[in-house]
Amino acid sequence: MSTIKLQTVIKLAIISHFICLLSACNKPSSATPVAMPAMPPPEVTVVTVQAKELPIDFEYVGQTAGMHETEVRARISGIIEKRLYEEGARVKAGQVLFQIDQGSYQTQLAAMEAQAAVSIARLNQAKRDLARILPLAKEKMLPQKSLDDAQSALEMAEASDKQVRAQVNEAKLNLSYTRVTAPISGVTGVATKANGSLVSASDSLLTSIIQTDPLRVNFSVSEADFLKLKTDLTSGKLTIAGATTPHVSNGSLNFEVKLKLADGSIYPTTGKMDFASEKVNSTSGGFDARAQFANPDNVLRPGQFVRVILQGARRSAAIAIPQRAVIDSPMGKIVFVVSKEDKLVPHPVELDGWSRGEWVVTKGLQSGDRVLVDGFIKAHDPGMLVKPMALASK
């Protein structure tokens, strides 16, 4: 019901009550008139504002992502003998996930080790031959060519031995690749190959692993917010603990971060903003940013949409009032201030964002003003006398 209608109803009720009093019990006109009792001032709730240092939060939409997301691939060709992990389970770096048939690779290693033995025998023979020829050559009992041939044979044997040793190492490496291990710790995905499947090094995606502890949250800071924040920090209007300039080394401004989940609950662990881009994302029109959270119990899952709340900024000598105290009028935002005489006085105000459920007032109020918060239905006319009651503290 509008204020005008409400006032009309009250006036009609008073007139009706007065007529009833005049005509009650058929009293003669000479009867003494009954005086109407004066209505007491309506009780209203007010808050006395005081300039103080005020925490300022910034809130954005974000999405969780794994700290690292890695594809697990086979590095050799072969038949998968067995999957050794449970899909969706946590694994540690180095844990064996798949076993590929080792038979052919064991055979290759044995063959290369046999070649290595032959190579060592040839190398030793070349060393003995050179040892016999060298003293004879010094005594000029053999032509120089014999000495040169023996030295060349030794060098070739040494080179051949190195080549074979490299082939042995390669065979050992290929054999080790038959045990496909987790490159990082994290949560495993679905296995793309079943037991008995043939895999190859060219097309060998087996599964994926996402590191969820710690977890990252990606979000975007609007260009308008970024420019205003930069201006307020430069002017000293706003301060952030640990950030004396509009930027720190990674552009993160040293914000602490809280997360509001889809059910409205707040994630218990506080994160840290660890990155902010220096350029505008042409798709979102904002600056890409990122925060990091500990996630030991795997409460957060990659891909969740969350509300990112940046905390740590503070505004000095600021005045804040409850949201419901502000009224929209044709002249803009106004509040009712209760004067020293307990009368309502409208005050136009200028606002500058939110602070934990309250409007930040930059113009129109000063410390000590009593602002009407509750009771607008009973008290809504400028100059109206009211009975102010202090707003109960939270």
Describe the secondary structure blueprint for this structure.
Blueprint: H1 3-23, E1 43-48, E2 52-73, E3 78-83, E4 90-91, E5 96-100, H2 103-138, H3 144-176, E6 179-181, E7 186-188, E8 198-199, E9 205-222, H4 223-235, E10 238-240, E11 256-260, E12 271-280, E13 286-293, E14 305-322, E15 327-329, E16 332-338, E17 344-348, E18 350-355, E19 358-363, E20 370-374, E21 387-390
Parallel strand pairs: 1-21
Antiparallel strand pairs: 1-20, 2-9, 2-14, 3-5, 3-8, 4-7, 5-6, 7-9, 9-13, 10-14, 11-12, 11-14, 12-13, 14-19, 15-16, 16-17, 16-20, 18-19
Helix pairs in contact: 2-3
Q: Please report the distance between the alpha carbons of the first and last residues.
A: 30 Å
Main pleated sheet = 6 strands, mixed
The CATH class name of the largest domain reads: Mainly Beta
Shape: elongated
Word description of this protein:
This protein is of the alpha+beta class and 394 residues long. The chain has three domains: 43-52 and 317-390, conserved putative lor/sdh protein from methanococcus maripaludis s2 fold (Beta Barrel); 56-67 and 212-316, Beta Barrel (Elongation Factor Tu (Ef-tu), domain 3); 102-177, Helix Hairpins (Orthogonal Bundle), CATH 1.10.287. The protein has helices at residues 3-23, 103-138, 144-176, 223-235, and strands at residues 43-48, 52-73, 78-83, 90-91, 96-100, 179-181, 186-188, 198-199, 205-222, 238-240, 256-260, 271-280, 286-293, 305-322, 327-329, 332-338, 344-348, 350-355, 358-363, 370-374, 387-390.
